[in-house]
Structures are given as structure tokens and as C-alpha cells.
Design a protein that fits this description.
This protein has about 300 residues and is an alpha+beta fold. It contains 14 helices and 4 strands. The chain has helices spanning about 15-20, 50-65, 65-70, 85-90, 100-110, 115-135, 140-150, 150-165, 165-195, 205, 220-240, 245-250, 255-270, 270-305; strands at about 1-10, 25-40, 40-50, 70-75. The protein has a 4-stranded antiparallel sheet. A hairpin with a 2-residue loop joins strand 2 (about 25-40) and strand 3. Helix 11 runs parallel beside helix 14. The protein is elongated, with a radius of gyration of 24 Å. The two termini are about 20 Å apart. This is DUF389 domain-containing protein.
């Protein structure tokens, strides 16, 4: 499994970068076009590197000062139909699927802490869907709300901040998560109050027995177990850039459904459900962050050692 490096290199660093790329047998398809880059000015390099070796190659490029004076971008190589690709993979320690590019993980985590309008909109819509799921006692809508919810982004960023010793990152992620839940719950609570005032929502719709969705506000030991497993799986998907696996994480945890239930419980004022929903939400977030952080720390300790340069 290869990733493609595209480098814009100032002329005075070109010789150092040439030596770095050519001396590493985990890199192939090295190309150089002198004076091809216009902004910033420099030479344009291309190279394919084994994914499991990409982090150590980036570390060595960092030491040349290139990130501050030129450009580095990475893209996944979808198909490699040449023999040298297999040889490069064999020379790199570990398996391609296990390779983690920590600089990309950190930057993605930073991006996940941005308070975008889309984030608040998706979380609000997901919470509203969860509230409808509670009213109709529909497990299908519960799953739909889980999938729409964007809240694993900041949860994963919290894990990254803790594992990579960047407390500021974790705090920004936590602040976004709190603001998002507060805004979503407040908006859905207002809508529920309007629905109650107009006769669309009856308190009995929330308080009646709900065989399919009653678990949302009744956390138990399995809530902790599922949250921990989801946190570990989510971090593995995040560091391995496997977005399809994240869908399974979204539909495993009860964060967004708990927020939807909380909004309805506030609107019809059911203190027991308010407390239960808050507890469910907290258990899921804490469980995911704890397990995700442990998973990421273990990855960092084990894989970074395996990714040490083979030819230095």
C-alpha cells in the first residue's frame, strides 16, 4: 500500500531532499521537475512511499525545514500494478493497513474542532431525528439519527489531543462537543415545546412504555462496554483512514439519541428521563474518549517504533 508525496522544495534544499528520497529503499517512483513550482517558488518532486514508512519519511523531511519553506501533500495511491510497489511494501516494517501517518491524524483532528455551521446543522438535525424516534418508538429512526450525527469528529479529536499530548486540541474538541450538544438540545426542546403547545406532542408520547427505545435513557453496564468498543474502533478507523468503518461506530453509540431524549424530557419535564439521558450521554462520551485514547497511545508506541527508518 503506497501513498504519493508531492513536494515543493526551495532550490537550496533540493540536494538534501534528493538524497533523502533516493537513499530510502521504501520509496520509489521519485521524480524531479526543476523550477516547476511558481507559488511558492521551487522544484517539484513526486515520490511513492510505503504507507507504513510515510510517517518516518515525513519526520526526516521536517528536519530539513521543508514544511516551513515549501509544501508537502499526500494522496492515497488507489492501485499499484508494478512489481516495485510490492518490493517497497516488503522493505517497510509492518503492514500497510496498520500504517498511521500521525501528522495527518493531528491535522485532521485540528480540522474536526472547527465550529462550522455544517457541524451544528447536522447535529441539530440528528437530535431532531432522535426525538422523533423516541416519540414514535422507532429503532430505525434511532439508527438514522446516529448515522447523521457528526459528534465522533470532536470525540476523536479529544482522543488525539490526549494521546499526542496536545491538551489545547482536546479542550477545543470538548468545547465544540459541549456547544454542539447544548445548541442541539436547546433547539429541539423549543420545537418540542411548540409542538406541545399546539397539541402535536402529548407528554404521554414520551412517558409511555417504549420497548424499542426505552434503553436510550437507561444506561447500564452494556452502555459502557459498547462505548469503549466503539471508541477503540473509531480511533482505528480514524488513524487508518477507513471512513466506511466509522459508520458502524456512529450506529453503535447512544450519544445523539440521548440528546434527543433529553430535549423531549425537558419539554414535558420528566426529571428521571432528564437525568437518565444526561447519564447515558456522559457514559458514552467518556467511554469512547477513554478507550479511544488508550487505543491511540498503544498505536503510537508500537507503530512509531516499527516505522523507524530502515536505511539511516
Amino acid at each position: 500500500m503506497l501513498v504519493h508525496l508531492r513536494l515543493v522544495v526551495p532550490a537550496d534544499l533540493t540536494d538534501d531532499v534528493v538524497a533523502l528520497l533516493l537513499d530510502d529503499d521504501r520509496i520509489t517512483n521519485v521524480t524531479l521537475e526543476r523550477d516547476a513550482a511558481l507559488q511558492p517558488r521551487g522544484d517539484l518532486f513526486g515520490a511513492d512511499v510505503a504507507r507504513e514508512a510515510a510517517e518516518s519519511v515525513l519526520d526526516r523531511l521536517d528536519r530539513t525545514g521543508l514544511p516551513h519553506r515549501g509544501g508537502i501533500s499526500l494522496t492515497a495511491v488507489e492501485g499499484t500494478v508494478f512489481d516495485e510497489a510490492d518490493r517497497v511494501d516488503r522493505r517497510a516494517a509492518g503492514a500497510g493497513d496498520d500504517g498511521v501517518i500521525w501528522q495527518v491524524v493531528r491535522r485532521d483532528a485540528e480540522a474536526a474542532t472547527e465550529a462550522s455551521g455544517a457541524y451544528f446543522a447536522f447535529l441539530g438535525i440528528a437530535t431532531a431525528l432522535a426525538a422523533v424516534a423516541v416519540i414514535t418508538d422507532s429503532p430505525i429512526l434511532v439508527v438514522g439519527a446516529m448515522v447523521v450525527g457528526p459528534d465522533f469528529g470532536p470525540v476523536g479529536a479529544m482522543c488525539a489531543g490526549l494521546a499526542l499530548r496536545s491538551p489545547g486540541l482536546s479542550l477545543r474538541a470538548l468545547w465544540l462537543l459541549v456547544r454542539g450538544y447544548v445548541a442541539a438540545v436547546a433547539a429541539v426542546t423549543v420545537l418540542a415545546l411548540v409542538a406541545r403547545a399546539t397539541g402535536v406532542l402529548d407528554p404521554e408520547m414520551v412517558t409511555r412504555p417504549r420497548p424499542a427505545t426505552g434503553f436510550i435513557w437507561r444506561p447500564d453496564l452494556w452502555s459502557v462496554v459498547v462505548a469503549a468498543l466503539a471508541g477503540a474502533a473509531g480511533v482505528l478507523a480514524m488513524t487508518g483512514e477507513k471512513s466506511s468503518t466509522l459508520v458502524g461506530v456512529f450506529i453503535s453509540v447512544t450519544t445523539v439519541p440521548a440528546a434527543g431524549n433529553l430535549a423531549l424530557a425537558l419539554a414535558v419535564w420528566q426529571p428521571a428521563e432528564v437525568l437518565g439521558s444526561l447519564t447515558q450521554l456522559g457514559v458514552n462520551v467518556v467511554g469512547m474518549v477513554a478507550a479511544g485514547t488508550v487505543t491511540m497511545v498503544a498505536q503510537h508506541l508500537l507503530l512509531r517504533r516499527l516505522a523507524s527508518p530502515a536505511s539511516t
